[in-house]
Specification:
Elements: H1 3-15, E1 22-28, H2 33-48, E2 53-59, H3 65-77, E3 82-86, E4 92-94, H4 96-103, E5 106-109, E6 114-116, H5 132-151, H6 156-164, E7 168-170, H7 171-176, E8 182-183, H8 187-194, E9 198-200, E10 206-208, H9 223-228, H10 234-253, H11 259-275, H12 282-298, H13 306-322, H14 334-360, E11 374-377, E12 388-392, E13 395-401, E14 410-417, E15 420-425
Parallel strand pairs: 1-2, 2-3, 3-5, 4-6, 5-8, 13-15
Antiparallel strand pairs: 6-7, 9-10, 11-12, 11-14, 12-13, 14-15
Helix pairs in contact: 2-3, 3-4, 5-6, 10-11, 10-14, 12-13, 13-14
Length: 430
């Protein structure tokens, strides 16, 4: 057998051999750099192991455009065919998720799901239709959606309208409109529909799928992805910021408690890590910090509560500004921010009230806390006489008196002078 014939035999055997693995990856929640990194790793792993198909199951409200484009670029250049499957029922592939769905070799949705609403910026976020920034972002993303849909053989007009008009589609509307390839009740139903079918890749090549192979173990997430992934949601990030600030405030006003300070620092560290992956408004963070400063100043300045009110107002406005409202997936509702700000403000105000009341209370610790306490004379005491001995708080002290007191009589502490007490007979009023 010639070398060429041997090579052809090996290739033929490979094509008729056991089917390749099927890989599964998930995208749940916002599209951000961490989730993008995980999906890119999953695609590279599928390529390395020459998988038959990679299924990305998604349920996302959208996310960051830059992260979405990174994923799409990797999907379009992947050796492995990729199916994006919107699941479970009740899930969605909104905004960035719509672009991922359109970029897939196979686009499928479960019954009761929806997709679309891919407009880059919400006009209610402070930008109008006439704003040049909105127009440029919309035009760029619309062109991105058009070129993906055209090269995938999908409905270009509906894909563009999802961007320019924020149109949304049910699974049946998307199927009838040519935006997706199938409606599948389950993963098994998806495999059954496409087993043996020929699909056209983005580069124009055609592949016949054999989906009878084993399902590979899911790719493990990195430590950072496991820790930060679940908390990279705007509401949870704001909670970390709020708890961190309250913990530090309690530690500042009650030094030595330790636990509030430790919890506060840990929460702020997690918030700082989240800051590296989610876009945040620096001005909003400064306004929140100003709110904390106003609460601290209330300890030093008598403002009759004005600084406290100002602090609560700064917290409310600042928390609303932390995440840019032009990214729908990161927009936090006023119904969440106001209770959070009021809770933070009320907690700090309560701590402030306790500190103020404690400052106005009589000294109750140390030697000065003994003033007014009662005890018993152990020796006879007389004004101007030699020092005697008294028993106060279970201890024996040297004492002088302002009035005569016989041994055994009850006395009251008037003043503490170093290690000596000035006392008087208990019956005498000062």
């Amino acid at each position: 057998m010639t070398p060429l014939a041997a090579l052809l035999a090996v290739v033929a055997l490979a094509r008729t051999g056991a089917p390749g693995e099927i890989h599964i990856a998930e995208l749940r929640g916002i599209v951000h750099p961490l989730s993008a990194g995980y999906l890119i790793d999953a695609i590279e792993r599928a390529d390395e192991r020459r998988a038959e198909l990679l299924v990305i199951e998604i349920d996302t409200p959208g996310g960051l455009v830059d992260s979405t484009k990174e994923i799409v670029q990797k999907m379009l250049s992947a050796r492995t065919p990729i199916a994006v499957y919107v699941t479970p029922s009740g899930g969605r592939a909104a905004s960035a998720g719509f672009l991922l769905l359109e970029a897939a070799d196979i686009a499928a949705m479960a019954p009761g799901t929806n997709t679309g609403a891919a407009h880059p910026i919400d006009a209610s976020g402070g930008m109008t239709k006439e704003d040049i920034g909105l127009q440029k972002a919309e035009s760029d993303l619309a062109a991105f959606a058009r070129t993906i849909a055209k090269n995938r053989g999908r409905n270009v007009e509906l894909a563009e309208r999802a961007v320019t008009d924020s149109d949304s589609y049910t699974e049946q509307e998307a199927l009838d409109g040519g935006l997706i390839d199938a409606v599948a009740r389950s993963r098994a139903d998806l495999f059954a529909q496409f087993d043996g079918r020929t699909i056209r890749r983005f580069d124009g090549t055609e592949v016949v799928l054999d989906l009878n192979g084993p399902i590979a173990e899911p790719l493990e997430r990195s430590t950072i992805q496991r820790i930060l992934g679940p908390i990279l949601r705007p509401e949870l990030v704001l909670l970390l910021l709020g708890i961190g600030m309250m913990g530090l405030y309690v530690e500042l006003t009650h030094p030595g408690l330790i636990l509030p300070g430790v919890v506060g620092v840990l929460c702020l560290l997690l918030f700082a890590l989240a800051f590296q992956y989610l876009p945040m408004n620096t001005v909003g963070l400064l306004v929140v910090a100003l709110g904390l400063v106003l609460f601290v100043l209330e300890l030093k300045v008598v403002s009759h509560g004005l600084l406290t009110v100002g602090g609560i107002a700064c917290l409310t406005v600042g928390l609303m500004m932390v995440f840019p409202r032009d990214i729908p997936a990161l927009r936090v509702s006023l119904a969440f921010v106001v209770p959070l700000a009021l809770t933070m403000g009320a907690s700090m105000a309560l701590v402030l009230w306790l500190v103020t009341r404690a400052r106005g209370a009589p000294v109750a610790t140390g030697t000065q806390g003994m003033v007014g306490e009662t005890g018993r004379a152990l020796t006879d005491l007389e004004p101007g006489g030699p020092e005697g001995k008294v028993h106060v708080h279970g201890e024996i002290w040297n004492a002088e008196t302002t009035s005569y007191a016989s041994r055994g009589e009850e006395i009251r502490v008037v003043r503490v002078e170093g290690m000596k007490l000035l006392v008087q007979r208990k019956e005498i009023e000062t």
